[in-house]
Amino acid sequence: MTTEKKAEKKPEYIKVEIARPRAYKWSSGKYLGKLYKEALENRKLVTNRCPKCKQLLWPPAGVCGRCNVEAGEDWVVMSGEGTVLQYTYLVFPLWDPHYGDRLANPYPTATIKLDDGVFLVHFLEEKDPEKLKNVKRVQAVWKEEGRGRGLGDILYFRTIDE
Ligand SMILES: [Zn+2]
Asked: How far, in Å, from the CA of 4 to the mean position of ligand 1?
């Protein structure tokens, strides 16, 4: 072994460019398609109800997972208001894995129980960590542009006073 310090050799990187067009179409299906359509065209959150247990399915589905019966077309327009059960406050850059959009930083996400009984995870508008501790009631704020993404058509949930 030599005492001479070896000159640090920089690694050689090989750059490979891959043309990977991502333009594709896929069917969201009958039930999820209704959710996407109502969100896009009417800014409404909809889901269907099980005919047996009468519970709302989320996301809308053809079969109730509890009863194992066909869910059918009993559609319900949900209020878009709910209660924050838990939140997470993330402070580092992230990207939307589905669409590649850069997410706001910081961005708080929350588990929200809608007044209709459906649980969902979405962003909160409030970004002040101290104020977040007191956020209870929230309301969906719909995007003006870039719509057609179902639940992603909701920009975030805004704190409402009650
Ligand atoms: Zn059921």
From this structure: 75
